[in-house]
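#structure-requests
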Amino acid sequence: MDRSLNLLDLALGFDQELADSSPLCGKLVLIEDCVETSGSFVLHQLMKRVLSPHSSEALIFLAFARPFSHYDRVLRKLGCNLATQKTNNRLVFFDMLMMKCSDVEETKDNASAVAKLFREIQEIVRKLCSVANSNVTVMVDDMSLLEIASTGNSNPDHVLDFLHYCHTLTSESNCSLVILNHEDIYTSMERPAFLLQMVCLADVVIKAEPLASGLANDVHGQLSVLNKGISSNSGRGSSRNKLQNFQFRIKENGIDYFYPGCRS
């Protein structure tokens, strides 16, 4: 086994021998976190893996949470230069903080702003797949902020529509779709339809949570990784779900993953 793989890599299937393909191709990966324990580091780790020099993949990143400079600074500490990746056409970065996401003003063809955004993404995916024959990953940081930005629209289902639009890329273009969402901001209200749909559509659900035993100096939280698996071909319609749990510690230039009680 490749010693460079960590527990998160193994849980996501990166130990599998797949020719010129990622185990996440054609899948929706949902990362859920909470106020006490941010899951952003999981997104950063996946960004680094997609943009690895050993990979031919390309990344389309929709940033609703922070500007490019933030991600560039974090990824540099992990050994990845995002500016270089943009120059090499392996990274297409949408700085949504600088763009209007509201549907108050409709486009001339009466399509919503989120539909227009998806068409841009769809066209970029088409170009990347045709020119470089690359696997493409689409990341959203984070979906709850898209929902907030779209509040007050004439159509409250635009975020749900956008989710379904993006999900079609997993089947039509074999893209990976990785979405970060803050789960606990909806604890005092009814969960919106798009959140329920994300959980339903997700092939992999990664949850970042605080330790059940409370705070610890050398352990920053715990991860659970649920692989929903693939329906069997036995005709019974059964599915293979696999749940893995481990803990983590965030360092300046990386993450340590370990099973409870096994940290050296």
